[in-house]
């Protein structure tokens, strides 16, 4: 039986991160997602929800007040950028408390608690975690109405184009409606580097670089002024 889940957050990017993470769990059914506590309250009155990923600081009705208003609240994992709300979250018997930005490995620990709470035995939990470990080197992108599994080792660079990203592989180019910031969180940081607000590169694919640009597949990609220290550190750590 699937765990019916709701995501509530006033930041679209945060909604995308959690939704993307949840796609790896076959036990989860994402019923809805919404941007505020009032809309969440309406959904909870209309639908059967087992689990809520809930931001705390939201306009109108915050997350803790939402849970307090419910006679029979679902299980909750609080998500917020403000660590001072942790005590409030645990006083409401939350399963867990995730501090943004949420790393994937930390998310796994929360899901371990969720699966255990909803009756999954230890063997299933370990099997799920092993499956996820095998997918960490892959990225799932929606391309032409289908989810495509992309080996991150094949990615040369990612370029942001408004609400879309262009993912350049060695032999093809993919276009996906996605935010570059979300992909930055999902990609392994030891392999990729944000060099510009519009570009993420694979460090291993860099052919040459200088103060203001890197070269990959014969193309120069700019290094943004605010990213220079980050780029230098990435190259230094990988012995470039």
If you had to describe this structure to a student in words, what would you say it looks like?
The chain has 240 residues and is of the alpha/beta class. The protein has 2 domains: 3-135, Rossmann fold; 138-237, LytTr DNA-binding domain (OB fold (Dihydrolipoamide Acetyltransferase, E2P), Beta Barrel), CATH 2.40.50. Helix content is 32%, strand content 32%. It is built from 8 helices and 15 strands. It has helices at residues 12-22, 37-46, 63-68, 86-91, 104-117, 122-135, 180-186, 228-237, and strands spanning 3-8, 28-34, 51-55, 75-80, 96-99, 138-143, 146-151, 155-161, 164-169, 173-176, 192-196, 199-202, 208-210, 213-216, 219-222. The strands form 4 sheets. The chain has a 5-stranded parallel sheet. A 5-stranded antiparallel sheet has the order 10-9-8-12-11. A 3-stranded antiparallel sheet has the order 13-14-15, with no helix packed on it. Strand 11 and strand 12 (199-202) form a beta hairpin. Helix 1 (12-22) packs across helix 7. The longest helix is centred in the middle third of the chain and has 14 residues, at 104-117. The radius of gyration is 20 Å and the shape is elongated.
Q: CATH topology of the largest domain, what is it called?
A: Rossmann fold
Number of domains: 2
Task: Identify the overall geometry.
Answer: elongated
Query: Which H/E pattern describes the elements?
Result: EHEHEHEHEHHEEEEEHEEEEEH
Q: Assess the beta-strand content as a share of residues.
A: 25-35%
Q: How many DSSP helices?
A: 8
What is the structural class?
Answer: alpha/beta
Radius of gyration: 20 Å
Low-confidence stretches: 121-136
Return the CATH class of the largest domain. Alpha Beta
CATH superfamily of the largest domain: Response regulator
Largest sheet: 5 strands, parallel
Number of strands: 15
Q: How would you write the strand order of the largest sheet? A: 2-1-3-4-5
Distance between the termini: 50 Å
Q: Report the helical percentage.
A: 25-40%
CATH architecture tag of the largest domain: 3-Layer(aba) Sandwich
- The chain-level mean pLDDT equals 85
């Amino acid at each position: 039986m699937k765990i019916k889940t709701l995501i509530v957050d006033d930041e679209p990017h945060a909604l995308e991160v959690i939704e993307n993470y949840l796609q790896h769990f076959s036990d989860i059914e994402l019923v809805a997602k919404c941007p505020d506590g009032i809309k969440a309250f309406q959904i909870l009155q209309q639908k059967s929800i087992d689990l809520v990923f809930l931001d705390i600081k939201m306009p109108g009705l915050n997350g803790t007040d939402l849970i307090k208003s419910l006679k029979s609240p679902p299980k909750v994992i609080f998500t917020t950028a403000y660590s001072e709300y942790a005590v409030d979250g645990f006083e409401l018997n939350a399963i867990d408390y995730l501090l943004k930005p949420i790393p994937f490995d930390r998310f796994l620990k929360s899901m371990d608690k969720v699966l255990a709470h909803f009756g999954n035995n230890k063997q299933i939990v370990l099997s799920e975690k092993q499956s996820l470990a095998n997918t960490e080197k892959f990225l799932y992108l929606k391309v032409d109405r289908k989810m495509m599994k992309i080996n991150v080792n094949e990615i040369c660079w990612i370029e942001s184009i408004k609400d879309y990203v262009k993912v350049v592989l060695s032999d093809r180019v993919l276009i996906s409606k996605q935010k570059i910031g979300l992909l930055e969180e999902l990609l392994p940081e030891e392999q990729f580097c944000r060099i510009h607000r519009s570009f993420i590169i694979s460090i291993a694919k860099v052919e040459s670089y200088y103060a203001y640009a890197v070269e990959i597949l014969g193309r120069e990609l700019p290094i943004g002024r605010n990213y220079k220290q980050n780029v230098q550190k990435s190259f230094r750590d990988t012995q470039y």
